[in-house]
Specification:
heterodimer; A: 107 residues; mainly beta; five-stranded antiparallel beta sheet; globular; B: 113 residues; seven-stranded mixed beta sheet; four-stranded antiparallel beta sheet
Chain lengths: 107, 113
């Protein structure tokens, strides 16, 4: 079992739809959690950190479920510009990356 | 501006040659990382360093070498022993605890010709 697993993609969704990504992790001692976005042929960039109480940034909502060991990312009212690969990262002093889920928003 | 710089952006290498990729950061981060990314794939860890003069092998260290003589610098050498070096190489840095975000350089795209 991989340490961090993400939904296999790609996700093809129409503009304006809501899309959800899940990411499970195996190390219950993990302390920090992040979602990154990576555009084609570019470096990953932080989208948002994930806090225990859940957090929201505009159209993006991240949640953490420690009991079930997963984090989620919800994108509401998706835009064409949201098309990218979304990577989850779990950290316990070392960063462990998921393989990423590609999102394609269609007009 | 604080950040992490990789150079060059594009690099071409002949088979059998060693080549060194540069990574410099001025974020005062203790930890630095090298990743390899192949088309359509996720990040694979090559080497990481938590402190000056110390580094650890990642999942795919064979055919690569690193040094960490200064806090700011973590160069990666792709040796001739690396059988399939054509890839996108990403350098990142973070604080030692891993509790805050990692920052990436813009990457080096290496092609063997």
């Amino acid at each position: 079992r991989k340490e961090v697993e993400q939904d296999p993609g790609p996700f093809n969704v129409p503009e304006g739809a809501t899309v959800a990504f899940n990411c499970t992790y195996s190390n219950s001692a993990s302390q920090s959690f992040f979602w990154y976005r990576q555009d084609c042929r570019k470096e990953p960039k932080l989208l948002m950190s994930v806090y225990s109480s859940g957090n929201e940034d505009g159209r993006f909502t991240a949640q953490l479920n420690r009991a079930s060991q997963y984090i989620s990312l919800l994108i509401r009212d998706s835009k064409l510009s949201d098309s990218a690969t979304y990577l989850c990262v779990v950290s316990n002093y070392q960063l462990i990356w998921g393989a990423g889920t590609k999102l394609i928003i269609k007009p | 501006d604080g950040g992490i710089t990789q150079s060059p952006k594009y690099l071409f290498r002949k088979e059998g040659q060693n080549v060194t990729l540069s990574c410099e950061q001025n974020l005062n981060h203790d930890a630095m990382y090298w990743y390899r990314q192949d088309p359509g794939q996720g990040l694979r860890l090559i080497y990481y360093s938590q402190i000056v003069n110390d580094f650890q092998k990642g999942d795919i260290a064979e055919g690569y070498s690193v040094s960490r003589e200064k806090k700011e610098s973590f160069p990666l050498t792709v040796t001739s022993a690396q059988k399939n070096p054509t890839a996108f190489y990403l350098c990142a840095s973070s604080d030692r605890t891993g509790r805050t975000e990692a920052f990436f350089g813009q990457g080096t795209r290496l092609t063997v010709v």
